[in-house]
Amino acid sequence: MDHFERRGGVLHAEDVPIPRIAEAVGTPFYVYASATLRRHAQVFRAGVGEDALVAFSVKALSNVAVLKVLASEGLGADIVSGGELARARSAGIPGERIVFSGVGKTRAEMTAALEARIYQFNVESEAELRTLSEVASARGSVAPVALRVNPDVDAGTLDKISTGRKDDKFGVPWERAPALYDLARRLPGIEARGVDLHIGSQIASLAPFEAAARRAGDLIEHLRAEGHDIDRLDLGGGLGIPYGDGVTPPDPAAYAAALRRVTDALDVRLVFEPGRMIAGNAGLMIAGVIYTKAQEARSFAILDAGMNDLIRPALYGARHAIVPVAERDGDPSPFDVVGPVCETTDLFARDVPLTAPAPGDILAFKTAGAYGAVQASQYNTRPLIPEVLVDGDRFAVVRRRPSTEDMLALEELPDWTDRPAD
Ligand code: LLP
């Protein structure tokens, strides 16, 4: 369920008509509904149980104002960089609700996370474990660790967003895990308390989640038999959401019930890292039509948003439903919806039914809250588009559009006057 509904034919974000935001902010922009963010946080927490840690995967939607809404619902943060740590902290998320994932944590990032007293480092290799041990023991602290194990489960999702197969770069191989826990026990500054896994994203069935959790349960029992105190199981994120493409993933309640059933007897604190499920349906990208044109075989609607603003279609072949913000009477005809970027892949979707689109019309891309704004770039020197947060009948720009001067401000001409001229 989302909070983007039509009233009198006009799409609203909660109680705010989208054309009103467009007038104030200018297209293109992202808009997020606080009510949807809150609802998803509540549904997820209720499903997995209040005692579990639900650490929102910040990479999905990292705007600080959004994180603050989620923090107020009791969510923590799953971070993958020092930058995301800073975001989580400035949104008021306490260290005890932060888990740190990722294959390439630097010493500086480890130090910052130790200073913030985070809940857990999800360690992905022996080299990382040894480095964390050095960094933590040098400052006299102990790093709580879960080893990310690779369960060799195929999540059945897009190849580019699968992470839990044995040839993916993530985690430590299953067979190596017991030896690494033994090593962790011997290393100073490390306290190995958990098992962590994450098998991929936009997963549309329960079976791979259950299989991975079962394998994790076997591992925990094995480790305990070897004398390790394992009291946490981090099941990662990955639950898919409907994109209007006919795929209907399980709902969060069914997902939570299945995973609780599989892990019930283990007596561990569960950790979850949902991203898309919380943020996906909570956001739209809004774009304006600049031109339309008819070629021999096809008609195009050319928008002011491009692949640099929403790269999922170009990168993964992902589909986002595209609908007019204001309905118009008449028969629709098929248009290829494209952006202004000088790349053939700057094509959002073919054959979108639109009724007499014209310059100035506004279109909405649905389900764009997750992995939308965060993956944007300034390719073609196009400014990152604003993000707007709605709450009831109010809206606020929570990230402004940079000016051209802002975009150029980090660049400098080299001062080579000290080198003698030839
Ligand atoms: N935990 C870890 C360790 C992850 O790598 C991810 C996502 C998540 C949690 C959150 O997964 P979610 O619940 O959102 O599926 N850019 C791609 C998705 C990449 C996902 C990367 N990892 C897309 O636009 O579809």
Key terms:
422 residues; alpha/beta; Lyase, Ornithine Decarboxylase, Chain A, domain 1; TIM Barrel; 2 domains; 9-stranded mixed sheet; 8-stranded parallel barrel; 21 strands; 28% helix; globular; binds ligand LLP; PLP-binding_barrel; De-COase2_N; lysine biosynthesis; lyase; DAP_deCOOHase_LysA
What's the story with the biggest beta sheet? 9 strands, mixed
Ends distance? 68 Å
Return the average pLDDT rounded to an integer: 95
The ligands bound in this entry are: ligand LLP
CATH class of the largest domain: Alpha Beta
Which architecture name of the largest domain does CATH use?
Alpha-Beta Barrel
Count of folded domains: 2
CATH topology of the largest domain: TIM Barrel
Structural class: alpha/beta
Low-pLDDT parts are none
> Superfamily at the CATH H level of the largest domain?
Alanine racemase
Instruction: Please provide the count of β strands.
Output: 21
Shape: globular
What gyration radius follows from the Cα positions, in whole Å?
A: 23 Å
Helix content: 25-40%
How much β-strand is present in the residues? 15-25%
Put simply, the count of helices is: 12
Structure overview:
The structure is a single chain. The chain has 12 helices and 21 strands. Strands 4, 14, 15, 16, 17, 18, 19, 20 and 21 form a 9-stranded mixed sheet that branches. It has an 8-stranded parallel barrel with strand order 5-6-7-8-9-11-12-13, surrounded by 6 helices. It folds into 2 domains: 4-31 and 280-408, Lyase, Ornithine Decarboxylase, Chain A, domain 1 (Beta Barrel), CATH 2.40.37; 102-272, TIM Barrel (Alpha-Beta Barrel), CATH 3.20.20.10. It is an alpha/beta fold and 422 residues long. 28% of the residues lie in helices and 25% in strands. It is globular, with a radius of gyration of 23 Å. Ligand LLP binds at residues 57, 60, 78, 101, 161, 198, 201-202, 236-239, 273-277, 312, 316, 370-371.
